[in-house]
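Follow-up to my earlier ticket, as requested here are the two runs.
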Amino acid sequence: MSARELAGGITLALTVSLNFPCAFASDSAPVSFQSDLLPVLKARCAVCHMTGKEPGGMALTPDSAWSDLVDQPSLGLPSMKRVTPAEPQSSYLLHKLRGTHRSAGGAGSRMPMHQPPLAGAVMGQFERWVMSGAPDN
């Protein structure tokens, strides 16, 4: 391999890693609610969950999303909290996002409604955030 080909390969690798850092992120990388999850909630969920008066009874806007999710009872399955810190299987939000809410005893549609499911990497972030205690970070 010539020096020119090597330099081209290095340039390509740097370009990809800088433009797509999530492609190289570890599955165990810490998840920030503010930086990683809020943009997803704002883009994919807050369109319908703006005031807390909509079905589900929660506002998923940046100023209220964390407090409306963590340790709050789910309206769709009152025996389960929306997010139970460190307990993904007991977090109704994850069931709704995965589409497993009915098998857990819940009702309604998979979320986000009328949209494609969240990408696997994004779901992994939500799961890791819950596992880490669902911090408001």
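Run two:
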Amino acid sequence: MKIEAGRDYLLFDGDCGVCSWSAEAAMRMDRSRQFIIEPYQMFDESELARFGINSEKCSRALQVITRKGRVYAGAFGVNYFLWRRFPWLLAVFLIYAIPVLLLFEVIGYRIVANNRHRISQWFGMKACLIQQPDAEAPKAVSPR
């Protein structure tokens, strides 16, 4: 798939239940189809590289590519998307007007992103296919 100039894109992790659920909610909110909302896995690495991102960055946070080619990641990408939606734009305005709220949003986004595989399991969503540390892996024994 190719990223066209003059269009806004919201790229999410299609292998993650929380991410897919959030993308479906964004699609319902975007009735006028101002955004092309797709899993980042639909795009070649070379296509992502045109905008200074790669699969690794996309697997860690939502990425928004604006119609002008600017990239916003994570909470900032969410805010870019919500800024075009009333009444959500009022919340975004408030978040930027009171910097501590933005700090809480960024921290909250990171907590959810880092634990999305657990959250998916808790809510019975499609299990995340992201790499998880193996809790049952044997521990190395140091020589004495």
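The only thing I checked on run two: The chain has one domain: 8-122. Let me know what else you need.
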